[in-house]
């Protein structure tokens, strides 16, 4: 069986945060979730997450994942170290398993790279394999020393490296693949005879090498994939790299991004072909955008569905669904629970909340539609307010197909405007309006002759 041990027990002090390091987000998604998702996508059947500091927060966040959680003890007399963390998880490892050990702070790792690494390990029949990378400046990293056959003979820490070894630019990523039996046996041989008094997993590699077992070294093509997050600077760098990766994916799949550097798209977003995204646009969570749409500029869409050939300009959309061939904005605000039909128009400075809007309905400007059910072919004039709140309870307004709501009207819920009815502008409607009726609810105009003169 393929098993992963994901190391996420560290305190992450350099983040200077009350939030555990692995719960900081990269393009809207917690770092630890990237590691779990990529492990599962690489066909790893059992995933073990080692937690310590911030355990309750992390465990809550990943509660929907099918993972085994083990706890690393915390205390001043605890030896710590990567070897100690792995020791907490090894009870779930069988001798015939192949075990991937990976840090919980490398969100850029690809599932394809994990698969290739494991295949390399299996093909070479190594006791342990090390995922390596080449850096132009390897300062601070452990160096990979190989023999003439290309097998790894040692991992030399930078501080212990000779001048000749410091010239090596192949480094240890901290990601390993062990044969289960070799990992189990070797962990019992680790000791804390080092300056930090910790158990190191690199010592397990050293022990296996000294016992004559072959050690594999798999060089990853893109060294960015093993970039860890230890502080806010690195978090920003990884966010930028992930953003560029996501944007490139969409462009190669037929999406036009106008100035990609200014566009933010999260990994879970789906975008159809021939859609154009303008600068200043943010697409977040489970947002799905259809084909031939135009989105932006300066638009934020969160967890919403936009059907084909719809335009959303300079607007905000949250937890909503918009049909095809719609025009939204500029400066529209669709709050959670909004459902817009096909060929509808929600214009500038129109706010919709928890309401359904039918096909071909238009609210072109300056309206508030809250807790409503609006039919098809309805016209909602400028300045219309669906008055849904009485100070204590929200109430529903229903406007049937073909109705016309004149400008500056107030529909005081609960109220029904039936099919084909016409509400005169400036009216405050508190009673139902029957089918095809004209409703006028305003005081008759009275002109007082001469009273406008010398009024102050």
In short:
This protein is α/β, with parallel strands linked by helices. It contains eight helices and 41 strands.
Supply the helix-strand structural class. alpha/beta
Q: What is the CATH topology of the largest domain? A: Spore Coat Polysaccharide Biosynthesis Protein SpsA, Chain A
Per CATH, the class of the largest domain reads Alpha Beta
Span between termini = 90 Å
**How many helices does DSSP assign?**
8
Uncertain runs are: none
- The named CATH superfamily of the largest domain: Spore Coat Polysaccharide Biosynthesis Protein SpsA, Chain A
Largest sheet: 11 strands, parallel
Please give the order of strands in the largest beta sheet: 12-15-18-21-24-27-30-33-36-39-41
Global shape: elongated
Overall average pLDDT: 94
The name of the CATH architecture of the largest domain is Alpha-Beta Complex
Any idea how many domains?
Answer: 2
């Amino acid at each position: 069986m393929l098993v992963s041990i994901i190391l996420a027990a560290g305190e992450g002090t350099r983040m200077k945060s009350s939030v555990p390091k692995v719960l900081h987000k990269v393009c809207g998604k917690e770092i630890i979730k990237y590691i779990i998702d990529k492990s599962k996508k690489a066909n790893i059947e059992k995933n073990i997450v080692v937690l310590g500091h911030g355990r309750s927060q992390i465990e809550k966040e990943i509660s929907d994942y099918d993972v085994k959680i083990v706890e690393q003890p915390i205390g001043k007399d605890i030896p710590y170290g990567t070897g100690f963390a792995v020791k907490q998880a090894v009870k779930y490892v069988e001798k015939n398993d192949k075990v991937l050990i990976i840090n919980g702070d490398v969100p850029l790792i690809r599932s394809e790279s994990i698969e290739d690494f494991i295949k390399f390990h299996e093909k070479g029949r190594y006791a342990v394999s090390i995922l390596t990378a080449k850096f132009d400046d390897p300062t601070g990293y452990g160096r990979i020393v190989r023999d003439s056959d290309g097998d790894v003979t040692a991992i030399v820490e930078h501080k212990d490296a000779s001048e000749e070894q410091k010239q090596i630019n192949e480094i240890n990523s901290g990601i390993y693949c062990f044969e289960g039996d070799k990992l189990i046996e070797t962990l019992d041989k680790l000791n804390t005879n080092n300056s930090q008094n910790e158990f190191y997993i690199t010592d397990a590699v050293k022990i296996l090498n000294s016992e004559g077992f072959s050690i594999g070294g798999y060089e990853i093509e893109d060294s960015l994939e093993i970039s860890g997050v230890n502080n806010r600077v690195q978090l920003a760098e990884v966010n930028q790299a992930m953003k560029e990766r996501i944007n490139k994916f969409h462009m190669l799949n037929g999406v036009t991004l106008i100035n990609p550097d200014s566009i933010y798209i999260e990994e879970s977003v789906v975008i159809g072909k021939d859609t154009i995204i303008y600068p200043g646009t943010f697409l977040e969570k489970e947002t799905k955008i259809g084909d031939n749409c135009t989105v932006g500029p300066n638009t934020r869409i969160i967890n919403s569905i936009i059907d084909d050939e719809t335009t959303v300009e300079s607007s905000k959309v949250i937890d909503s669904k918009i049909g095809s061939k719609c025009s939204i904005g500029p400066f529209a605000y669709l709050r959670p629970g909004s459902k817009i039909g096909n060929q509808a128009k929600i214009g500038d400075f129109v706010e919709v909340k928890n309401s359904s809007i039918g096909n071909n309905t238009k609210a072109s400007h300056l309206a508030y539609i809250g807790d409503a059910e609006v039919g098809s072919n309805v016209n909602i004039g400028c300045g219309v307010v669906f008055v849904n709140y009485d100070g204590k309870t929200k109430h529903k307004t229903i406007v049937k197909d073909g109705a016309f709501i004149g400008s500056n009207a107030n529909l005081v819920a609960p109220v029904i405007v039936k099919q084909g009815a016409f509400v005169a502008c400036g009216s405050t409607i508190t009673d139902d309006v029957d089918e095809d009726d004209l409703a006028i609810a305003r005081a008759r105009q009275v002109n007082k002759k001469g009273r406008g003169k010398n009024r102050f």
